[in-house]
Amino acid sequence: MELKQKGAKADIGAFKQIKLSLVWTSAVDLDLMAFYKAKDGKTGGVYSDNYTGGSLGNLNEFPFIQLSGDEGVGAVGGDNREEMRIMKLDDFEELYICALNFTDASSGVNNVFAEYDARVEILTDKGESHTVALDSNQPGPVAVICKFASGFISNEIINDSEVMSLDEFRSRVPGASQLKLASKITLKSKGDSFVIKPKVSGGEILVNLNWNQNPGGQQQKGLLSKLFSGNKATDLDLGCLFEMQDGLKGSIQPLGDAFGAFDHPPYIFHSGDDRTGAYSEGENMRINLSYINTIKRILFYTYIYEGAPKWSDTDATVTVKVPGQPLIEVLVGSQRDSRGFCAIALLEFEGKDIKVTKLVTFHNGHQECDQTYRWGLRWVAGSKS
């Protein structure tokens, strides 16, 4: 039975289990989700743990809903299917089944679901099936597909088809305010780590080094204006050690003009050296997300090329940004150490996941850092052109 119109209802009676399937073939990343308000007032949701705070749920305890996983990651076309199972409705005052278009939501685009040949199939343990098509021509990244209503004797599923913006979705649907496409994670202590789960197969990981040129509250001259130690401005550089899955190792940094490459190995590129202290965006390194399966690990570091090694005066911060994922922040500049080289963070590539670990260890140069983390490179003196 197809529930074609908004408000159309179907009696699903008593059941032991319901299976819902979000099915689509277009090259878009759709996510099946459930949001609820329980009879005790508690709100929440069941959705992919690729989102910060997301949970796949549990069939054996509240909310008695479980999601199969996350399909279509990277907006890959084909036979995409996400499944959700529901064991009971007794505890819910409101339960909504939704689809979020991550591809559009993460890029701020509002296309229409009618372009994506998507539908939700509902199958009860009695063999009864119902279908709700996602065929709305209303622009927006979220479709509230249907809702369940529980009664003393029977249960109903209601076509609640409505497409809306993320802000409207978060304000209107119980529990949806907890959904975040991205947020910020600060790794506070050495050894703290966070696993990033990219939901796109293309694009880039952006690693940024920036530092505050006005830590003492003096007249602002802009980020990356000159810091003075005597008459010398402090020149911080961002670099990395890398190891590929095939065993290739090397380093990328302004020193020696080793800027790497984005479109061929090692798929890591340094965007340019700031020596004047005038570039407000700091120094950036880009990692090609399309080839992360060829990378084993990357260690990011910074060193003071010119100026006194007063890290506490720089207030330096490194961030790691992946599209649609939490921004990872590592604070460096609050440290007090007389050595001019700092190993900041280690990225380890484990299948589709990226584990980011805070290091913030200080060393007397590149070679000592290399030996500490067992990279095994040969080092010679270099300079900037």
Can you describe this structure?
The chain is mainly beta and 385 residues long. It has two domains: 9-178, sav2460 like domains (Lipoxygenase-1), CATH 2.60.60; 184-372, sav2460 like domains (Lipoxygenase-1, Sandwich), CATH 2.60.60. The protein contains four helices and 27 strands. It has helices spanning 102-107, 166-172, 311-314, 366-372, and strands spanning 9-11, 18-24, 30-38, 43-46, 57-58, 65-67, 80-86, 92-101, 118-124, 129-134, 142-150, 155-164, 184-187, 193-196, 204-210, 228-229, 232-233, 235-244, 249-252, 260-261, 268-270, 283-288, 295-306, 317-321, 327-331, 341-350, 353-363. The strands form five sheets. Strands 13-25-24-15-22-21-20 form a seven-stranded mixed sheet, with no helix packed on it. Strand 26 and strand 27 (353-363) form a beta hairpin. The protein is elongated, with a radius of gyration of 25 Å.
Key descriptive features of the protein:
27 strands, single chain, mainly beta, Lipoxygenase-1, 4 helices, 385 residues, 7-stranded mixed sheet, 6% helix, 6-stranded antiparallel sheet
Span from first to last CA?
A: 71 Å
What are the segments in which pLDDT stays under 50 over at least 5 consecutive residues? 213-231, 274-279
Number of domains: 2
Mean pLDDT score, rounded? 83
If classified by CATH, what would the architecture of the largest domain be?
Sandwich
Number of separate strands? 27
Rough shape? elongated
Describe the largest sheet: 7 strands, mixed
Q: CATH homologous superfamily name of the largest domain?
A: sav2460 like domains
What spatial order of strands do you see in the largest sheet?
A: 13-25-24-15-22-21-20
> Strand share of the residues?
35-45%
Helix content: under 10%
Estimated radius of gyration: 25 Å
Question: How many DSSP helices?
Answer: 4
**CATH topology assignment of the largest domain:** Lipoxygenase-1
CATH class of the largest domain: Mainly Beta
Kindly name the structural category. mainly beta
